[in-house]
From TrEMBL:
Residues 1-440 form the Amidase domain. This is Glutamyl-tRNA(Gln) amidotransferase subunit A. Its EC number is 6.3.5.7. Heterotrimer of A, B and C subunits. One of its GO terms (biological process) is translation. Keywords: ATP-binding, Ligase, Nucleotide-binding, Protein biosynthesis, Transferase.
Length: 447
């Protein structure tokens, strides 16, 4: 704990933490040290973990990168936090993220951007940018993030760490501030597949507080990390042809394919004719869900209340106007539009149907192949400020991560190389629904 607290202090300029629970972490360390001596410590004893500032931890702040929740304190703990604590993990602080997890660069945070540790002029990725940089820079051993459309995998790729997005319904969302409820999943970021597997198996599994969590028992991921047999892996032909794919990322993908073939695995190109629809479908559905989820920030129930309000109507209006940042407002407007009478059928209803097609096609591919391989991102970490002026350019950068989110399947990003400027590059593997075990074992083999 002392080591990490010192590291956090040294790297304060990275802006990874919104709050450090220093004294509390020291006390926990002392308590758990005694448990270790007594032989009664949990399975995460000694693991110092940071949590994305979207995960509720009783009596601690949770601001989700927003002014609207700046001074808000959780009144209960999320299921994932309860499970980490029950196994004696030490939670060292809460990590910066894009406001309401909306973004892919951590530049939408009320607390400012997080800097990439390799190159401080580059973004960390997002929305779980603080989680990725904290692991990258050694400010904690592992971190929790959330992934709605890539927010664990994309910052993991930009920062050279392992990131896992579980199957939708594998991990409880109880106590996770909602962005888009039919997509959101909590996932670990770590330096090794072993750490990610152990954390995932502890946070996963049935929860009486979230009816969307599957009742399927959680296998021991960490105890079964030996991948056996030759695998069948699909690459999507449209992916390697995608416009704007960075040549060094393409090369790394091809090298990975060659390596897998060399090891005797089958790698085949299959067509996925919906690639151009994944980003629009994702943004219609997630903004719709967000506009509904964010209706609760009304200046009355909790969070920021404008001091300039004079009646109920102006309390709503001014609190939301002053409390939300530009990107969140943009998405509330898009979401409200696609749900509005007269437009619902042509946008929201249509996108629901396209989601089903994407899901069915992805499942069909995964009925014939063990995994789908693709880059995590089309480019390495870009410059801070570089894409902020054009939201559409920023959205299109999610092209490779949102398919797994729309389909609800698990996916990992693995740090398999660096570019010529030493920036990390991530390769992504998508697995079968609830196939985290095989996916993690294969990840371990390929790392
Ligand atoms: N970049 C995507 C978005 O802005 C993903 C965010 C996420 O997964 N939370 O919606």
């Amino acid at each position: 704990v002392e080591h990490y607290l010192q590291r956090i202090e040294e790297e304060k300029h990275l802006n990874a933490f919104v709050e450090v629970f220093g004294e509390e972490a020291r006390q926990e360390a002392a308590r758990i040290t005694e448990k270790i001596a007594a032989g009664s410590a949990g399975r995460l004893a000694g693991m110092v973990i940071g949590i994305k500032d979207i995960i509720c931890y009783k009596s601690h702040g949770v601001s989700v990168g927003s002014k609207i929740l700046e001074n808000y304190k959780s009144i209960f703990s999320s299921t994932v936090v309860e499970r980490l604590l029950a196994e004696d993990a030490i939670i060292i602080g809460r990590l910066n993220c894009d406001e309401f997890a909306m973004g892919g660069s951590n530049e939408n945070s009320f607390y400012g951007p997080v800097k990439n540790y390799v190159d401080n002029t580059k973004v960390a990725g997002g929305s779980s940018g603080g989680s990725a940089v904290a692991v990258q820079a050694g400010l904690c051993l592992a971190a929790l993030g959330t992934d709605t459309g890539g927010s664990v995998r994309q910052p993991a790729a930009f920062c050279g760490v392992v990131g896992v997005k579980p199957t939708y319904g594998r991990v409880s969302r109880h106590g996770i501030v909602a962005y888009a409820s039919s997509f959101d999943q909590v996932g670990p970021l770590a330096n090794s597949v072993e750490d990610a597997a152990l954390i995932l198996e502890i946070i996963a599994g049935p929860d009486e507080y979230d009816s969307t969590v599957s009742l399927k028992p959680v296998p021991s991921y960490s105890g079964n990390l030996k991948s056996s047999g030759k695998k069948k892996i699909a690459i999507l032909s449209e992916v390697l042809e995608a416009e704007g794919l960075d040549p060094e990322i393409k090369q790394l993908t091809e090298n990975t394919i060659a390596r897998l073939k060399g090891d005797g695995h089958t790698v085949e190109a299959v067509s996925f004719p919906y690639l151009e629809y994944v980003v629009p479908t994702y943004y219609i559905l997630t903004t719709a869900e967000a506009s509904s989820n964010l209706a609760r920030y009304d200046g009355v129930h909790y969070g920021y209340r404008s001091p300039n309000a004079t009646d109920l109507e102006s309390t709503y209006k001014k609190s939301r106007t002053e409390g939300f940042g530009a990107e969140v407002k943009r998405r509330i407007m898009i979401g409200t539009f696609v749900l509005s009478a007269g437009y619902y059928d042509s946008f929201y209803g249509k996108a629901q149907k396209v989601r089903q097609l994407i899901r069915a096609k992805t499942d069909e591919i995964l009925s014939k192949y063990d995994f789908i391989l693709m880059p995590t991102t089309p480019t390495p970490a870009f410059g801070i400020g570089e894409k902020m002026s054009d939201p559409v350019v920023m959205y299109l950068a999610d092209i490779f991560t949102v398919q797994a989110s729309l389909a609800g399947i698990p996916a990992v990003s693995l740090p398999l190389g660096n570019n010529s400027n030493n920036l990390p590059l991530g390769i992504q593997f998508l697995g079968k629904r609830f196939g985290e075990g095989d996916l993690l074992a294969f990840s371990k083999y390929i790392m």
